[in-house]
Amino acid sequence: MSADLTIVSYNARGLRQPKIRRQLFAYLHSRNFDICCIQETHSSFSDEKYWENEWGGKVLFSHGDTNSRGVCILLKPSINYEIIKLDTHTFGRYIFIDVLLNEQVYTLVCLYGPNNDTPVFFSNISSKLLSFRGGSIVLAGDFNFVFNLEHDKKGGNCNTNFKTRTECLALMTSHHLLAIWRERNPCLKYFTWSSNITPGIHCRLDFLPCCKTFVSCHK
Q: How many CA atoms lie less than 13 Å away from 100 in the CB half-sphere?
């Protein structure tokens, strides 16, 4: 994310299987990320202590059910942080935190967007951001729509959740956020989701919009 902070966003498509969960945790530790935003955890309240012990550091949860949704934020065990404010969605769609790191306050949102055209979701995200400090805002997650049909999708129907897309772009404008990876790679086709049918469908659904002051931004 920047010279002082590294963030990764990853859709796990379910972490209930211990082998898959431990492999992911080991990989994230090996890359030494400061903060890991995970979507589709399929977690429950009974998992919290066990998963946190496996991770070895702080884990913040918003649970869906054991077959869908759920997000979590993993904080590197050695990181020095202070969580100033926390808000979680009741049904596993987002976690908001104001977190103090290296004398800098970040407003971080880990989100898993609805897969239908639901603009009110991002309208609510935008409104909720106003109640956080927002010194340096980062949205990390699976947005479940494509920003640009030409560059973010291959195969399938030529459609996207247009109302949701419009609302999300309005949010980014209002809070001065940029999808910096796309800004720096305006024509590159890079996909984060693929179907298992033939012919294949490929989409870029995962984004990390952040404030313009960051040096770099990665999915």
A: 5
| Residues 81-95 pLDDT 10s | 999 999 999 999 999
Confidence band of 216 (pLDDT split at 50, 70, 90): very low
Q: Residue 7: beta bridge partners?
A: 35
Instruction: Indicate the annotated binding residues.
Output: 11, 40, 142, 144
- Cβ atoms of residues 210 and 1 within 8 Å: yes
Query: Please, which residues have CB within 8 angstroms of residue 35's CB and are 6 or more apart in sequence?
Result: 5, 6, 7, 8, 73, 74, 75, 76, 79, 108
| Binding annotation for Mg(2+) | 11, 40, 142, 144
C-alpha–C-alpha distance, residues 69 and 43, integer Å? 8
Are the CB atoms for 143 and 182 separated by under 8 Å? no
Geometric angle at alpha carbon 148, from 144 and 150, rounded to 5°:
125
Overall size of the chain counted in residues: 219
**Sequence-ordered list of residues with C-beta below 8 angstroms from that of 131, at least 6 positions apart, any chain:** none
Contacts of 124 (CB under 8 A, 6+ apart): none
The Cα 191–Cα 102 span in angstroms is 33
